[in-house]
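User: Hi! Is it possible to get a structure for several chains at once, not just one? Here's what I have:
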Amino acid sequence: MGLALAGLVAGCASGVKHSEMAASIPTIKQGEGRIYFLRSASMLGAALQPDIRLNDQVVGESKPGGFFFVDRPAGKYVAATATETEKTLSFGLDAGETKYVRSSPSFGLVVGRIVLELETPEKAKEDLPSLSYTGNALTPQAK
Amino acid sequence: MGRIRLAGVWLALSLFLGACAPSVPISQSKVEISGREAAARRIRLLEPAAIKLDTGYSRTLAQDSVWQSFGRLPQGQVFRPVGTIFTIEGRQVHEAYLVIEEQKLVGFYLPGEENYSPLSTAVPLKFGDIK
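Assistant: Yes, the chains can be modeled jointly so their relative placement is included. Here is the combined structure:
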């Protein structure tokens, strides 16, 4: 029981909260857009923490209570998780645009999986402040 | 024994259903948007519209949702949502813009693939221009 609980706790994102680091998040470079990946803090399906791929490149992990973002040139993108071979998510990204991709556990009749969906900016901005950063260390912006 | 049999049925059903989710129908070739405007036309839906996708999924376009002209396809004028997102779903999930011709939703432009996905049955829309 204790071990299982420890495993669950260890599985949750524990980095800096978005609300604490918002000021240090760099602005988007010209010609690029930003894609946030976020996942609500929930014990449901917490053990499922697959890699997230963007155009077949691993960009991070889906962790409960976590978020990260990547900046990419404007263009066409397909996001998918390693646990999901069929349900990909395709979207366009404009220069200067920010898109939000939510990952969440989904349970079928037999197995659980992590699915991706586009989130509205309104809902994503409500959730982001309480989520922890799970991406790479940010490079300080030149003054 | 009965439980094992039931579990087997569930597994088979799960695999069957997962494998059979139909893909969103798309045009054979990529489509090009023309006539992108700097000062784009905006419309507001005056009534909600229920859409039954050919994949079996459904979507509702909310009353008062605002859509901005994005350009034109041979099939109709393309409108993207303002301040929100819209997706259609089949085997995959696709961001989608509305393609409207003669006050009817005839299909979707998929910006993530530069493709057109037709609706088998056009859906009448009631909307007004935002001045």
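The first helix of chain A runs from residue 2 to 10. The mean pLDDT of chain A is 85.

User: Great, thank you!
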